[in-house]
Amino acid sequence: MKAFKSLDKKNFELLIKDLLKTHVIYGPVKKEDGRVHYRKISDFNELFLSYEGHALLPLKKFFLSEKEILFEYEILDNKDVVIRDKLEGLEKVQRILIGARPCDIRGIEILDRVFISEFKDPYYETRRRNTLIIGLTCNKVAEYCFCYFTGSGPDIDTGYDLLLTDLGEKYVVRIGSERGFELVNQYSELFEDASEDDIVARNEIIEKLVADLKEKDLFPLDNIYEKMVRNFNSEIWEMYGHRCLSCGKCNYVCPTCYCFDIHDELDLDARTGRRVRVWDACHFLSFTKVASGEIFRRERSSRLKQRIYHKLVYSVDQIGIISCVGCGRCIEVCTADIDIRELLQKIVREGI
Amino acid sequence: MRNPYIPKLAIIKDFIDETPDTRTFKICFKDPKDAQSFEFQPGQFIELTAFGYGEAPFSISGKSNRENTFEVTIRKVGVVTSAIFRLERGSVVGVRGPFGRGWPINKMHGKDILIIGGGIGLAPLRPIIHYIGGNRDKFNNVILMYGARTPKDLLYKYEFEEWSKFIEVHLTVDSGDQTWKGRVGVVTVLFDEIDVIPEKTIALQCGPPIMMYFVTKKLKELGFPDENIYLSLERLMKCGMGFCGKCTISGRYVCKEGPVFAYNEIKEFLERAI
Question: What is the complex's ipTM, to 2 decimals?
């Protein structure tokens, strides 16, 4: 079977309508505020696949939700405790994410390396196993995009089950996994082998995106690891740390910021409660605070550095790849106008 | 799939007051199977749950095979620890772990050992002292240097006499009282009481970062090779499995790769560890 198929848009509609019978489907939806969000859809027409750029929040929330109940417990009259695992409820749901951008898909691949490694996070792993990803390459380079420079777009080879490219009347479908292959097989009457013209058209779209991204005249990030290591004590960090408001927005919108906090919630009856995990942010002063009161990253610059070093240095040490996917969300939301592209350029050009 | 976030239920069998704000709790798993499968290396930690209040990491400070219990020594400083202090004997708690990398026991065999503790930092070192006591012929000279703020703040006072039978014990306090006849000063003052051969000695230390900074400096002055110096680092370890990110130093997970690190590893960190 060839790695590329073509899918007429009418057939795509049939495909989604049929999949909606058996799966919970999430896709890009345009909200009243004009922004695009990944939302659960109940009807094919809710999908807004001609969107530009990316959705406000990345895909991580589908695997590592902003607030997750890990388990519930009850303290009995005899002081004994009964625990109810919340994992079991997750097992049965079959989900499909449609219209995910390559940068966001790479974000999930990065999270895979963190959450499915020596230890396995069962909530993440269960959701990952139960979710098909049908990606969609971009039609236009958005203002803050720089995926080409982080190697996470505009085309990627892995991380998805199917990857669509919009050719107008139809999609070219790149098959990226065994599960994607099975899905195409299951609905083989809807798909055709992609023609040479389809492939050429797809390549032209990708090349145009690459050319537009290259126009941004960003540096190659090849030596950024060594540069960053050498410039850990550079005053550049102080400069940006001084501007940073430590609001943590960049953490929340980042496809690869996965840090979380865990705490207990006790109901007013003081009998029942639950353990929850919530997204945390390394920009917060409280992030490294231990019970004795010690705070290990007290300076704002040390917290700003933590996030950027995690993306470009620590991530390479831990999981073998950088964990910035070039989506530009952190630039877009930053109240203090801190631009990671500009910051990294400064390190490369002005650093030692 | 076993869910590693779910604690195993355990019971507080007993506790003793070590200092005005510190207690050692004896904990026993409810299910005998959990007790049987619970094995730990000196220096490892557990996550202990006070139901309704949350979970926090604590070094394992001892065990009793006879009673099938293990021990944690806890200082009352926060929400979870205060809740644990309110628990009575027989109360149910939750336990996850053990987690992390402990002291380098295999590397320590046949060597001189210098153990340096500050305040509650003696807790993760106590299992190694007990281990040495039970396997004395596997080690050469063993010295303990221990310092606390005041005589009241010294942990495990009731064991010092026993320890003195098999290792050298040197004590100091930051400020003494009428009863205190020993040394006064930070733990590094004890270096003038001891004789060590740095290249044959493994140093293990745990205490506040400022103590470990000065102890390490002193050990380096004495000529200790970096790889003979081990430190147990304190960070906020929430999950214990290298996910939550709160305990990292320079991208190294203290919960998974530590809490014990050799100084040559720490020196490679971009961020300051001590």
Answer: 0.92
